[in-house]
User: Fold these one by one.
Assistant:
Number 1:
Amino acid sequence: MATVECLGFKSAGIPAGLKKNGDPDLGLIYSASPAAAAAVFTRNLVQAAPVLLCRERIQSGRCRAILVNSGNANCCTGQQGMRDAVAMSAAAAAALGVDEDQVLVASTGVIGQPLPVEKIEAALPALVQKLAPDGFPRLAQAIMTTDTEPKLVTRRGTAGGRHYTIVAVAKGAGMIRPDMATMLCFVCTDAELSAAALDRALRRAVDVSFNRISIDGDTSTNDMVALMANGRSGARLATREDERDFTGLLEDALRELARWIVRDGEGVNKTAEICVQGARSTDEAYRVADTIAHSPLVKTAFFGQDANWGRILAAAGRAGIPLDPERLDLYFDDVQMVAGGVGCGPAAEAQATAVLKQAAFTVTLDLNQGAAAARFLTCDFSPDYVHINANYRT
Amino acid sequence: MATVECLGFKSAGIPAGLKKNGDPDLGLIYSASPAAAAAVFTRNLVQAAPVLLCRERIQSGRCRAILVNSGNANCCTGQQGMRDAVAMSAAAAAALGVDEDQVLVASTGVIGQPLPVEKIEAALPALVQKLAPDGFPRLAQAIMTTDTEPKLVTRRGTAGGRHYTIVAVAKGAGMIRPDMATMLCFVCTDAELSAAALDRALRRAVDVSFNRISIDGDTSTNDMVALMANGRSGARLATREDERDFTGLLEDALRELARWIVRDGEGVNKTAEICVQGARSTDEAYRVADTIAHSPLVKTAFFGQDANWGRILAAAGRAGIPLDPERLDLYFDDVQMVAGGVGCGPAAEAQATAVLKQAAFTVTLDLNQGAAAARFLTCDFSPDYVHINANYRT
């Protein structure tokens, strides 16, 4: 991998003894100058202490550093959990010499166990010492739980004749060993834009990326996506067009990470893009795609490479939106399986079975009642998923 | 099993060649005199032809016979499917000498394949000839798909000094081999009550039985529960108390069938009753119980006998109702696992693991924000579930 840098940012990742196997489990991002910041968090009402703390701190729209640990989610840990999250941020602020309220913290791992915050405090001097402009790959490694590879993507853009960089790291969601299947993503850019513009761009990009993937439908208590912009490239996003370009690059980067997360989920053999079109509104299209993407019967059929279109129609039928079964058309890639709610017969089934033998394919359902569409990325449901999640804590 | 009879009703079940293995696949219920009737159907918008036909016919509140086949769901079969459903009912009406619009029909099995209605027509004379007062067990057998045992329950009640009987047969829902995991249930009683009273009793009983079980959350295109009352016992349900008694017996019978269906689902090793209490309304309690009961992470933990309470709290947190995580108490049977949102520690975990080793247990979540409660019966999610559903059609 070519060296990845983003002007004015340093990062690092080291082992701090939170993971039993000695793997890196503590990561840090630091901006040498003040940075604008935005973040989105899990919508689960049961939220880990670091999420509660960051929700408050991000209101300022400023952030200098993010400290993140894997191996322990610091969730369902009561008031002690909040004290530990604050202690984590205080330790990072002291070691870096920045304001404590400009430090965000994140945790992922087993829930319900006290965070060994003393291990984090003890490791911080070494972590700060390791901070380096090319530290992103080590950061990406430190936030892994059972991801099989660190996930890091970059994009380059231009504004006002100056180049800027976006660097994003993420760890996996759902269907994977971590107890709560937390999804974490941290994005740095050396472009210059306001906290309000950052917030708009981030919400839009998350909506078309991380909010459009499904592994098992269980929303984590710790999910968080944070974005910092320090302007050190000198590329100022001054016009609407600049902002649109930036948002497009960010969407593209987060979509790549989202796909990577699904593909890398343990127990995943197939990824399927569910495309629902011909809906009366994007929301209705989304609801149908979401229901299909979460159906265990659909997902087990994908695992079995079975072009079982009846299950897809049945999932659509219970999505809670009005639709006319006799208008439904269904395709597996380019193979039409259903026309007007009726199956296209054995020849189509045979072709569709070949489509399902691929590692990735698209399922398109046309409701034929409007012009809106939505896409959702999902995966198969395998016996490995069950084994992994049945035996996680034992 | 003692002989089961319900005055004035005859039933039968025989092989008609719809199932490849030659098992019974055609069943008939017949009332010797006019009967009041009520039915509830799947809420899936994709509905099989027999469901569409019965929805219309049940409006009359009268029914003389129900003809049901397994081996083919007659769903997603277009206009031909409706013609076939009508032909099924016409054949039964002719063979029995009753009005065609007083015959209900039901189908279960693979969807998207034309119903071989000629086999049903050919078998009808033999089926009618087999009709007998003690034919319920053979009916129960004929509607089976991968249920491992026929499901038949009875209840006895009294009204106005006369005894009456309720007989109910059912076949399994979800998580089992049939493509669409159809749930069918047919109930006969020789009590006398109006179609309106029947409808009230049936809706109430279904709401606390079949609507409170989850196997995989996939709602079938063919689900149907039908109830006939012919009054032949002379027991007339004249008072509110009589009606309440009847409804109680019906609830009890359908709850027994619902539990049986879950327990007998293929791939099921554990059944868990999810009890959510301390909610502000029954609807909110139901939504939380429903979300927990459908969570793949919770269900795989049950399979693994892992007292993974964090997953249960996380499921509650995404149920879409307001709740305070710091008020949550959680119990596995009588073992308290969580108090005020915080885990009760290793000793409780050890005790809870012993609870989960049982074949059946109760999970109680107290929201501590009201007085309403709801129960939901669910099961574990096993590798067998995946294998069965991955390889159903191949």
Note: The mean pLDDT of chain B is 90.
Number 2:
Amino acid sequence: MSDYRAPIQDMRFVMDELADLPGIARLPGFEEATSDMADAILEEAAKFTGEVLAPLNAVGDREGCRWQDGAVSTPPGWKEAYRQYCEGGWNGIACSPAFGGQGLPGALAVAVKEMVCSANLAFSVCPLLTTGAIEALMTCASGELIETYLAKMISGEWTGTMNLTEPQAGSDLALLRSRAEPQADGTYRIFGQKIFISYGEHDMVDNIVHLVLARLPDAPPGVKGISLFLVPKVLVNADGSLGARNDVACASIEHKLGIHGSPTCVMAFGEQGGAVGYLLGQANRGLEYMFVMMNEARHGVGLQGVALGERAYQHALAYAAERKQGRDAVTGEALVTIDHHPDVKRMLMLMKSRVEAARALAYYTAGLLDRSHAESDENVRQQQLFLAEFLIPLVKGGGTEMGIDVTSLGIQIHGGMGFIEETGAAQFWRDARITTIYEGTTGIQANDLIFRKLLRDRGATAQRLFAEIERTVSALRSHDDATLNAIGKSLQEGLCQWREVTRCVLASAKTQPEGALTAAVPILSLAVTVSNGWMMGRAALIARQRLDDGDAAAEFLQGKCVSARFYADHVMPQAGAYAATALNCLVG
Amino acid sequence: MSDYRAPIQDMRFVMDELADLPGIARLPGFEEATSDMADAILEEAAKFTGEVLAPLNAVGDREGCRWQDGAVSTPPGWKEAYRQYCEGGWNGIACSPAFGGQGLPGALAVAVKEMVCSANLAFSVCPLLTTGAIEALMTCASGELIETYLAKMISGEWTGTMNLTEPQAGSDLALLRSRAEPQADGTYRIFGQKIFISYGEHDMVDNIVHLVLARLPDAPPGVKGISLFLVPKVLVNADGSLGARNDVACASIEHKLGIHGSPTCVMAFGEQGGAVGYLLGQANRGLEYMFVMMNEARHGVGLQGVALGERAYQHALAYAAERKQGRDAVTGEALVTIDHHPDVKRMLMLMKSRVEAARALAYYTAGLLDRSHAESDENVRQQQLFLAEFLIPLVKGGGTEMGIDVTSLGIQIHGGMGFIEETGAAQFWRDARITTIYEGTTGIQANDLIFRKLLRDRGATAQRLFAEIERTVSALRSHDDATLNAIGKSLQEGLCQWREVTRCVLASAKTQPEGALTAAVPILSLAVTVSNGWMMGRAALIARQRLDDGDAAAEFLQGKCVSARFYADHVMPQAGAYAATALNCLVG
């Protein structure tokens, strides 16, 4: 099945109404992001992802990648698709125009990224990593390295990788052993083995730019002795042409549960005497540079959850509208399509509302990141950044856990057919399973939320967020529409629970860290449930207003209200359960 | 990894203390189920499943089954393992001694079944179906058919299948089209295509006994016109020897998400002029006979969820005790195994407590089924049967949904390694995914609970169950141990919520079926959460008592209390969320 259609209407609604793209387009540097421009981009991206990338998704799953003598072949058709992807200018959509990018705001580019992930998650991993590497170079590379590498990475002519993990060092990077030996010419020789390197080797481009974490000889132990190096697969001559092959080899690729089209490589650096590497930024600050791009990377993975949920929803919706089975329990009609059955409706609505809610939070957060770069007032920039950073573990942890749940519902709606691989529903679920693990597990997101994002300003950002949510609660509760009222009531309860848990964790996290660490994931789930519900409440208010104003998109806007109400009735009650569990850990 | 060790201590605790095996062993027909007998059986079964079946689990996943020219080869080693399984007498452990079975109570046999499923789910599907077919034959076959087939199925020499599903008829069997033409000799000719037939063809035995649903020429439409036929793969001569091949063919096998070792066949009946079939019982009562064995089959699938959860738990526990990563957040110790990290502990405890709770409900229900057969008083038998039938959708729906959640946590604990197939954690999750679908989806379990099991006696069985739970609540709350008190409090709240929802659904299900149908799965989840919590509460009371009595198994019994408390703190709060959602559907 290759039937992905980008949900442009919801994307536009969310970016315009909830992430305030029109406001962002008034900020310096983002003036090109007009409504017409957004239309054009979304339509083109929908066409490309639907027609080129989506049909290759099942191919990638079935054929996988092949390793032979150190070379990796991507699945049939991928090389050509990647060429088209680059030609369309999609790779550099949000990158600096100074190096050939389009410089669009994240709140617009996010929709394109979602489409690419929905259409073909395994494919999307390659540009995601290249984008991360680009950001890292922008942060800390010297002018010369930027000159040599950046434009080619932005165009997509060369791709990028992140070489962090080693067999003994996964979540705990303090245990890194790869080492870098300084050379007389100012370069370094890199030695070590890295694992789980996505697109560490592949056949879609002529050169691959590896960013590698390694230790200098005199480095202090632990995370403060890690430096970041640029290690190209092929050395680049002074004139920019490709030179000799560097001492970097792909030793093998993994046999994985999902994203078969994305080669996960074991990379060997320096087995022939040392891989030539270039220090990025200052020595021993590698982890810090990596964390600069962590926001973007984690946001991107959260978006993968949204994207897979959307794809699975479309797939299940289409099946449920075709498959006839059983009698209509209410009308008694003899043989109906299964989307008439209340429990199937419930599952479809659960998929839809959870995807919409997570999408809204992801786009909203992308907008905050735009503002954190482009607002003129430094205080405003800082506040937007802190709020974005507070929400990123929610986008990542919440989006990915939702993605697993929702793709599982997609299988369930297919019944026995869902278990047959050719149906395609199972792939989304298998692909989704990595998203709660890579770029920091859900547990790590939860710790980041509490021990970094909440505690670093003693809850000040949280309080600002709560005040925002409170405003939405007031608007909903004072509205004369019963649906909005009900949504407001459930949001109010959720907010109240989140506040109580936040008070409690602020009071006890430092003195009783074990309780807070045990409560962390339940607290993250609580935060996700309520902030997603906030987005749904905001969406309902705006949709209601536009309906009252006689907006032409009545069916879509009514759908937003129904979806928000469903979320309030079926998802928001979980906030109470997460809060109770968290309090049991914190107080118990 | 082939490191399954049957959790004999917990199995014995649950069957003795919660399912009252000693009481059941006093009932006529079950006298052999002494404590020594139970010890011997569990030890032998643990040995066989751990040493023979478990190591073949990954082999089956990797190699799968092969179809060629209508023949199906099972994975390497399976034929020999099946031979040993039969030689050990495991197939007929709970079957009638009159035909070579051992006649053991279900409350004991259930542990052996769990072990087989834990060790190798794909393998276990074959005996599960044979057992179902045996039950169907006992219910409705003539003496002659019983004479010819039963003993060989109980010994395992021949296996059985269930041929229900057709491409257009899945959950809705009213749509069946396979037909049976009466012949002058009293036999029938069967025509039609069946799909999703597990072990419809394989190489482990010489004959396969297909039970096939089909329509007679004069049958009324819908479910009341379906008859059940016995259709052997190979015809049996009057002397019991094998004769000519019947007109039954395996047209292909499916490429599935999981249980690769279990061949899922498309079966073609009658393409060469008609498959010889024998009517079982009376015409047009086929579905009724199928439902007789549905209790057992659904219970068995619920147990599969428990079994996979247990296996995944053991796998994750072993990994977490070996993998070193990160610093101890509380003691500050430098490099610790990950089972020191509070969030990993939380996940492991969530796995353990949810598996133990679901196991307890499954074993308890098996005990009720034993009593429903063996109690002398007919009223008691009837009450036990009604309670068992009330709980079976909870065992099935709850056990299988838990199995998916818990195997997913197992992957999560492995981090990136969990996504690599060779690690083995992913297989449990893939295998688990079918269990919420086959033998009736979770949605069908929920409808069965409400529209059949709850409404048929207007809640009388539910009220009896609530009164039982209330007694446990009282014992917990009046106890002077704080842990038991806390468990009692959470159980009391859950019971209160379940009662309220039950009142509401009894009042509205007939007049507003759509609300009840939408609320069905949340209500099932509520019922599962509370009744599993009840089992944990009972377990904690008994464990506490035995500890106070100076029982030697102190570590195990303390573990039961910890597990029950964890369940109360981390799982039971969800009851409130399910109840709120259900009420939103019923009232909203």
Note: Chain A touches chain B through 73 residues (CB under 8 Å).
